[in-house]
Design goal:
A hairpin with an 8-residue loop joins strand 2 and strand 3. The chain starts with a helix and ends with a helix. The chain is built from nine helices and twelve strands. 31% of the residues lie in helices and 23% in strands. The chain has 286 residues and is of the alpha+beta class.
Length: 286
């Protein structure tokens, strides 16, 4: 979900209205390598955003590299979320009547500062500040930057519209970011069980649904080693998705909710356990 928010911010920061080059969007989406697999992932992200109500158009000419333009900048992130995810991301989104927050002109630069761990310098409330940026989100005051004056201090909120003389230092000059509230609130980030790398075969049209349930999952580029076993000619194609699971209970709950859209490929022990659990449910009449 955070990747989708970064893509939207980058698109909204296009003041010239010429469209954002695909290589810029790849970087903002943490898809640093410009490969076909990365471009496929980005196109899937853009498809999710379009389904959520954003008018995103590729304005590049024929034969040119992609350039994407956000026509409607209404920031309705809640359209992408389930009720549970709305609660977990409440600090980032307007969920009631206030759902049209216009991104300030400096928002794109601050996104880079958070991502690249760059110190932020500005005047705020009549004082010069040097800030370690941690997070960007929306409040009733508009977009704010959660940041620390000193590494060992708690983060405070700085309303971006009230910042003057903004300067961004070189990448790597700020301290490591503290754990964001959205990460703490999403049970999939909780370290309750030993890490387990899981591979799923997803019915291709439903990859977006799986990525909403498991935001940290990544699409595995197709190859002879990773391709799911061949299905019958009348069955839909599948895409392999990989994620690291540290909360088995939440993972299984979301996996079961996805139903026939997904099946577990690896590890074999997990496949066996899930099959036994489902068989027990069937035999108990549940």
């Amino acid at each position: 979900m955070e990747r989708l928010i970064r893509i939207l911010i980058c698109l909204a920061d296009d003041d010239r209205g010429r469209g954002v080059p695909i290589v810029t969007l790849l970087r903002m989406a943490d898809l640093d390598e410009d490969t076909e697999a990365a471009r496929v992932q980005l196109r899937r992200d853009l498809t999710i955003l379009r389904r959520g109500g954003w008018d995103i158009e590729n304005v590049a000419g024929e034969g040119e590299d992609g350039r994407y333009l956000l026509r409607a900048r209404d920031n309705r992130l809640a359209l992408l979320l389930t009720p549970g995810e709305r609660a977990a991301l409440g600090s980032l989104l307007y969920l009631n009547d206030i759902d049209r927050v216009i991104p300030p002109p400096s928002l794109g630069r601050l996104v880079h500062a958070v991502q690249d761990r760059s110190l932020v310098r500005c005047s705020y409330a009549g004082r010069r500040r040097v800030l370690h940026p941690d997070q960007l989100y929306v409040t009733t005051s508009g977009w704010v930057l959660a940041a620390r004056m000193a590494v060992d201090e708690p983060a405070k909120e700085y309303v971006i519209a009230w910042m003057d003389g903004l300067r961004i230092d070189r990448p790597g000059t700020a301290a490591a970011a503290i754990m964001r509230p959205t990460e703490r609130l999403d049970p999939m980030h909780w370290q309750l069980d030993p890490p387990m790398t899981v591979r799923l075969a997803v019915v291709t049209p439903f990859v977006a649904d799986v990525l909403v349930q498991f935001p940290a999952a990544t699409v595995v580029p197709p190859s002879a080693d990773t391709a799911p076993e061949s299905t019958a000619d009348d069955e839909p194609p599948e895409t392999v998705v990989e994620l690291v699971v540290t909360n088995q209970a939440t993972f299984r709950s979301r996996l079961y909710a996805l139903g026939l859209r997904v099946r577990v490929l690896e590890p074999a022990t997990l496949v066996t356990e899930i099959a036994m659990n489902l068989q027990a449910v069937v035999e108990s009449g549940g």
